[in-house]
Structures are given as C-alpha cells and as structure tokens.
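User: Okay, second chain of the day. Same drill as before: sequence in, structure tokens out.
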Amino acid sequence: MPPYEKSMEITPFKQKKCLATRKDEVCTIRSKFPNKLPVIVERYLREKKLPLLDKTKFLVPHELTFGQFLSLLRSLEASQALYLLISGKNMSCLSASMGEVYSQFRDPDGFLYITYASQDMFG
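Assistant: Same drill. Structure tokens below.
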C-alpha cells in the first residue's frame, strides 16, 4: 500500500454541503427508503495506512448489527484492521443494531457519521 499523501486528502462530507442541503438529502432518502438508514463513512483525517473507500454514503437496514456493518466495510478493505468511531468520538457494541446506533448517535442533519481508522489512531 502506498504511503499517505497530501493529494489523497478529501473534504469531509459535512463541509461539502450546507446543513439545509444535507437535511433535504436525508428527507429524500428516508422517504424513498423508509427501512434504510443514511450512513456516511469517512477515513480519519490523520489516517496514514488505510485507503479511501470507493464510496462514503451507505443505506443500511435497521436490523443490521454494528458488527455486521464492520464486516461489510472490512470486506471492502480486507487487508487492514479497521476501527470505527461514531460521530468522531464514540464506539459502539458490535451486537447493537444499526437502528439503535442511529437513534443514539445520528447528527442533527439526519446522517449517521462513522469514521474508520487503523490501530495507530489510538497510540
């Protein structure tokens, strides 16, 4: 895997769109897919080892556990250990449903923001 480069930095989702636009987007998503949760997954800003995911927006079923969601993300980047932080600072029990995690940690705009990082983030 190539080392982290400045050119690989991207603007966080919240900074790309204003609050009103993000709220409208969530409203549209929830009306089209009432049984799915809008989740944004982004790489930790100081992450040096993990690559960017191909996409950042996910529609996740309420019943899916946080552990199953982690497995889904791991399958996208199977070669590295992956740690997930909710709203940039919280961790959740792997057996909690995404519906529970969403209701507890969703942002005021309606998205659930999850940051992924490697172990070095904690050290």
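Residues 14-122 form a domain with the Ubiquitin-like (UB roll) fold (CATH 3.10.20.90).

User: Thanks, on to the next one.
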